[in-house]
Amino acid sequence: MNVLVIGKGGREHALVRALYQSPSVDQIMAIPGNDGMKKEALCAGIKEPSDMISFCKKMSVDLVVIGPEAEIVSGLPDLFRDAGFLVFAPSKEAAALEASKIFSKQFMKEGEVPTSRAFVVENLEEVKARYKEFSSPWVLKADGLAAGKGVFICQTEEELFTASEKLFKEQIFGEAGKRALLEEYQAGWELSCHVLTNGSEYQLLPLVQDHKRLLDGQKGPNTGGMGTVAPYQISEDLLQQVKKRVIEPSIQLIERKKLFYRGVLFIGMMITEKGPIVLEYNVRFGDPETQVLMPLLDGDWAEVFYKIARGEVPDLRWKDLYATCVVLAAKGYPQNPVKGDQIFADLDKITMSSYFLHAGTAFKEGRWVVNGGRVLNAIGLGSSLEESIREAYKLAESVQWPGMQMRKDIGKWMK
Ligand code: GLY
Predict the structure, then answer these.
(1) Cα(147) to centroid of ligand 1, in Å?
(2) pLDDT digits (tens, 9 = 90+) for 177-196
(3) Distance 190 CA to ligand 1 centre (A)
(4) Which of 104, 282, 285, 293 for a ligand 1 pocket mutation test, highest count of atoms within 8 Å of Cβ?
């Protein structure tokens, strides 16, 4: 089959590589893709949805896989489906689960899915009227999409009020921050849970641990993710709680509300003393979670995505394998990534147990340069977690550019 991947980051390179290794795939195309995936996919810089559809017709595309939330939330999957293509991504209506934190909070309440108490707030006065109902730290979440930057964790009243002014007065996220949730903070450890679903049945993928803070020791600002490990082993008791209290009521409510879902639901949760508490729903694969999920399947990912797009949920088998992803980030990431520096490394280096995935690189005048915040993913595979960590770091340490940032403790936080 011929498959089109929409997106340009590390997640999409992981998808492209997985499709490249799928026996059922003839050709892979990416819109827009990135320079690092050009050996595996034909990349086309097409912007208009109508041109994308013409391109798909011309290239006899059998399946469209959409990576980023912005494209899903904009309704691109519906446009492709209306044009007759099979698409791995949910409808715009279902994408409100990620597009609106207020919608998803109401959804969780209706489905009796465990989540933090929260109030909808629209201005500083409403924040001041409500914040004493919780204790510090306070969580303020912009309602709409904010490229992973819309959650403020505020230790002091001053920080909370400043964050409120940024959202409501300075409108740093525009419409996306017109309304927000003021939410109770949950202490615990985070777990990334992905389920493939057709909107009524589901298949749970291996659990992943992301490392969101920039610096070692879980310190520094929040980022999109500085590294991941999978599979994350949890006790049978906790796994049952995750299934019974979180996944099943969520899927049942998607079905009851008749939300058209043909894709992956990524549930970010905090494991607290009271059990799992849902922090957010995402209507796409996580980045850098995808990078460690793709190598674990014992099978053909293209077949899996194709079946989901048709409304079938396949049985899945997993390799006896661990994967680690170490993110190499630009100087100044996450606030102001510095672009343009030359990357010194052999980025074509592939071993049986390690390889690079490109996220924010560009190939200019015969050199690889930094072209984004999260630049490269060093992937390590192994028959134990330790081996996969070792392999990922061996590869990561072969890379250099001025001010490159990477955490040294990915995979050291297993509970
Ligand atoms: N790694 C977190 C996310 O993709 O949202």
Answers:
(1) 10
(2) 999 999 999 999 999 999 99
(3) 12
(4) 282
Using N-to-C axis directions, what is the helix angle for 248-256 and 101-111, rounded to 10°? 100
In ligand 1, the atom with minimum distance to the C-alpha of 282 is: 5
Could you tell me where in the chain the CATH 3.30.470.20 domains are found? 189-309
- Digit-coded pLDDT (tens) for 122-147: 999 999 999 999 999 999 999 999 88
Residues 6 or more apart whose Cβ sits within 8 Å of residue 410? 211, 226, 227, 228, 229, 324, 325, 326, 389, 392
DSSP letter at 301 equals H
Contact 240, 332 (CB under 8 A): no
Distance 325 CA to ligand 1 centre (A): 13
What does each C-alpha distance from 162 to 120, 152, 168, 175 come to in angstroms? 17, 10, 10, 18
**Alpha-carbon distance 246 to 98, whole Å?**
16
In the reported structure, the alpha carbon of residue 287 is separated from the centroid of ligand 1 by a whole-number distance in angstroms of 5
The domain 117-184 is placed in CATH, from the list 1.20.120.450, 3.30.1490.20, 1.10.510.10, 3.40.50.620, at: 3.30.1490.20
Q: Where along the chain do the CATH 3.30.1490.20 domains lie?
A: 117-184
Whole-structure pTM over 0.85, yes or no? yes
Q: Which residues line ligand 1 (CB under 6 A)?
A: 210, 224-225, 282, 286-287, 289
CATH superfamily, domain at 322-396: Phosphoribosylglycinamide synthetase, C-terminal domain (3.90.600.10)
